[in-house]
Amino acid sequence: MCRHFREDFKVDTRIVRYHNVYGPHGTWDGGREKAPAVICRKALQAKHSNSHEIEIWGDGHQTRSFMYIDDCLTGTTAIMESDILEPINLGSSELVTINQLVDIAEDIAQVKLTRKYNLDAPKGVRGRNSDNTLILKKLNWEPSIRLRDGMEKTYQWIGDQILRGQKSLVY
Question: Are 79 and 143 in contact (CB under 8 A)?
Fold first, then answer.
C-alpha cells in the first residue's frame, strides 16, 4: 500500500517495524502494558505492601529487547527524513531475559521479589530481538538508551502516577 501511494500519488512513505516501545506516558496497567512497565508497577506495589511476590508468565528465560520512547522518536524522525524506502526495524539490540528484567526492577526499587512462574500462562515466542543491520548500514545509528536507564525513568513516572491516584490510559 505504501508503494502504491508513493508511485501513484507521489506521497512519501516509510515502513517501520517498531520493537517493544516503553517509557513514561505509556500504558502501565490494565493488561496491555509492555513488560518493563508492568514489572516496574509490580515492583512498586511490592515495595509498598507486605507481598513481595511477582508472577512471571513462563519460566523467565524468554528473551526480548525493549526500546525506550526517546530512541523511538529519534529513530522515527531519522527514518522519515531519510531516503529509505524498504521496511526497516526500529528497536534496541540489548537483549535480556524476563528474569533479567525483574533483576533490574528489583535493583531500582531496592526490593527483593519472590518469583512465581506460571508455566500455563501465555508466554509468546522463546526469543525476539530487533535485527539492526539495515538501520546501522543506512543511518549509521541504532537505539542506544540502556534498558536500565529507561527503566529508572519509567519506574519514577509510574510511581508518580500511583501516588497521584492516576490510572493508565489504555490505547
Answer: no
The CA radius of gyration of the chain, in Å to the nearest whole number, is 18
User: How many whole angstroms separate alpha carbon 4 and alpha carbon 137?
Assistant: 26
- Provide the 8-state DSSP code for 16: E
pLDDT tens track for 18-44: 999 999 999 998 888 899 999 999 999
CB 25 within 8 A of CB 156: no
Q: Are 69 and 27 in contact (CB under 8 A)?
A: no
Beta bridge partners of 95: 65
Residue 60: count of CB within 10 angstroms of its CB = 17
Instruction: Enumerate residues 6+ apart whose C-beta is below 8 A from 73.
Output: none
* C-alpha cell read off for 153: 525513568
Q: What is the pTM of this model?
A: 0.90
Strand partners, 127: 63
144's CB contacts (< 8 A; 6+ apart) are 71
Amino acid at 29: D
Contact indicator for 14, 84 with CB cutoff of 8 Å: yes
